[in-house]
Fold this sequence. Notes:
Layout: E1 16-20, H1 24-35, E2 40-44, E3 47-51, H2 60-63, E4 67-72, E5 86-88, H3 93-100, E6 106-113, E7 118-123, E8 129-134
Parallel strand pairs: 1-4, 5-8
Antiparallel strand pairs: 2-3, 3-4, 6-7, 7-8
Helix pairs in contact: 1-3
Amino acid sequence: MQKLKKIDAQTNVITWFEIPVADLDRAKKFYETILDIEMVKRKDGDHESVFFPYDPNVVQATSGRVTGVLAKSERHTPSANGTIIYINATPSIQAVLDRVEAAGGKVLSPKIQIPPGFIALIMDSEGNKIGLHAEQ
């Protein structure tokens, strides 16, 4: 029998995230624009989601890599209250912040230095408060 790995100081506690959206296409365009990435829309039954970049051959929970989706459903409502997830803004947080307003979002706080790197808060096109993090 294979022994299961326990969560410890070397294990990511977060393995997956979902950002609630009202308009999948608008949110997809927003995140693709500010992060300069390509996202994939996928439909599973009645649910349609937009995936952040990922490798389908990697098991997220054990690889240490975290990814997620933009999700539209009756169970999810965009909100500026509650948990804040921080998205990787590498290589430059300022470059991402500079694209936020033109993409339909709002910068809530400028970059703030924290060891190691910088963080900032934005409001996305759907009304979610989202954190950004990068080393520069």
